[in-house]
Write a structure and sequence with these properties.
Layout: H1 17-42, H2 51-73, H3 80-115, H4 132-151
Length: 152
């Protein structure tokens, strides 16, 4: 079967290796954002930084940098202002997730020691999770990064 739609040069049918790599990286980048936002919503009643949120922030940072490298190699113009803003915000997301994850691990490690102290029934006081603020910041700055990607 021959025809213009089946030739190798037709863009709708074939993609070169760099386009395939870009699509894979973009998909991973979006999955990282979805993990951060979804992870936050799964623990919204008791906010904390989940390990998956930290790993997703690493994923977003690495895939974002690789997407910039691919964009620079192409023929199109790259908006360096947008890339700079997104890089700073992505670094902040990663730092907030890292700090929150460390606080969460420390909180979880000391929680069993304090639970068996033998204090009466009235000691059941709700304690704010120390990584809650970092969870809020991780989520908020991930959303800011999405808004910069779409509107800048």
């Amino acid at each position: 079967m021959e025809g213009p739609a089946l030739t190798r040069d037709h863009h709708a049918i074939t993609m070169n290796g760099m386009e395939i790599l870009r699509e894979i990286l973009l998909s991973l980048h979006l999955i990282g954002m979805a993990i951060i936002v979804g992870g936050y919503f799964t623990v919204i009643r008791s906010p904390r930084v989940l390990p998956g949120m930290l790993h997703a922030s690493y994923l977003q940072l690495v895939t974002g940098l690789l997407l910039v490298v691919i964009a620079e190699m192409g023929d199109d113009d790259v908006n360096h202002m947008k890339i700079g803003i997104k890089l700073v915000v992505a670094i902040l997301v990663t730092v907030f997730a890292f700090i929150g994850n460390r606080k969460q691990k420390a909180f979880a490690a000391e929680a069993p020691a304090g639970a068996g102290a033998g204090v009466g029934v009235g000691s059941a006081v709700a304690t704010k999770n120390p990584s809650a603020t970092m969870a809020h910041l991780t989520f908020a700055f991930a959303l800011i990064n999405v808004l910069v990607a779409v509107f800048v």
